[in-house]
Design a protein that fits this description.
Length: about 300
């Protein structure tokens, strides 16, 4: 039985509180605990968790953090009866704390912006760092809206033929099965020649076969989108989705490029939550997230 928790990064900001709601929905669907994590820094560290050579005592966790964590945990336990919710503050900053937790998590959930985020910056520095370096799948909740969507909104997965995208397709099939939604496999490209379309359909057919093998109960369809920019095509496709699932790197990605251009565009600009599946992750940990929780919890009806 999977006992790896769903971990939500929270800082008291509205986006992070909504992200915690998404995390609770996922944890209930998976039947695992929810861990709320707030990373904090030493007041004099200027962005790094350091101690002076004269005082080796770690600074205490801020009281305001304890307060909002306690209130949030209580709210989620009430809203989702039976859900085990724990909360902790971690010295070292938010990104470092969440990356440490990702080693043993089923899923990390973060908001698109937290405290101190600039209005023009669609993805906060913490979220961007976590998406690029986490050891487990990461759900970026953007735009910051509650975890409820149209009941007919499909799960969408990006396909480019890479190992990462096929891994994401298998994950997306499980996600669609749990939600009772259709799965649409999308290939976005910049070429429109007949040979390009033929090859794109071959990639989609291969991915559809893997999705059907993993979850034969899911209705799968395919779609080819061509335009001036492949990333724009995926962002446009996200307008109709409950969630978009992508690999963190696609075909042609360099080893040192931790987030591919399409994944990066989606986590900055998608019109729905984005679930990024990292490379080199143990596929036994790729347990689908989200799902309808009405049958599993007495909380509000969520999509």
């Amino acid at each position: 039985m999977n006992e790896r928790p769903v971990v939500a990064g929270v800082d008291g900001s509205p986006p992070s509180l909504i992200a915690a709601e998404h995390a609770a929905v996922a944890a209930v669907a998976l039947g695992v605990p929810l861990q709320l994590v707030h990373g904090y820094l030493h007041p004099g560290s200027y962005g790094a968790a350091v101690l002076t050579p004269y005082d080796l005592t770690p600074p205490p966790a801020p009281e305001e953090g304890e307060g909002f964590l306690s209130d949030l945990a209580a709210h989620l336990r009430t809203t989702y009866p039976g859900l085990t919710v724990t909360a902790k503050q971690v010295l070292g900053g938010a990104a470092a704390a969440l990356l440490a937790e990702s080693t043993d998590a089923s899923l990390l959930v973060v908001g698109s912006r937290g405290l101190g985020g600039f209005s023009g910056m669609l993805l906060g520095s913490v979220s961007a760092h976590v998406v690029a370096h986490a050891r487990c799948p990461v759900l970026v909740v953007r735009p910051p809206i509650p975890p409820a969507t149209r009941p007919d909104a499909p799960v969408i997965a990006g396909v480019d033929g890479s190992a990462g995208s096929l891994r994401a397709v298998r994950y997306a099939a499980g996600e669609a099965a749990r939600r009772g939604r259709k799965l649409i496999l999308v290939h976005a490209g910049v070429g429109a020649a007949e040979a390009d379309r033929t090859r794109a359909q071959e990639l989609l057919d291969e991915a559809a076969g893997q999705a059907a093998q993993a979850h034969p109960e899911v209705q799968v369809s395919t779609e080819i989108r061509y335009g001036a920019d492949a990333a724009d095509g995926m962002v446009e496709a996200s307008k109709q989705a409950a969630v978009v699932v992508v690999g963190s790197r696609g075909r042609g990605g360099f080893l040192g490029l931790l987030l591919g251009s399409i994944s990066q565009a989606l986590v900055h600009h998608a019109h729905c939550p984005v679930l990024v599946v990292p490379p080199r992750v143990d596929e036994r940990r790729l347990v689908p997230t989200g799902g309808e929780v009405a049958a599993a919890a007495a909380g509000p009806d969520r999509g």
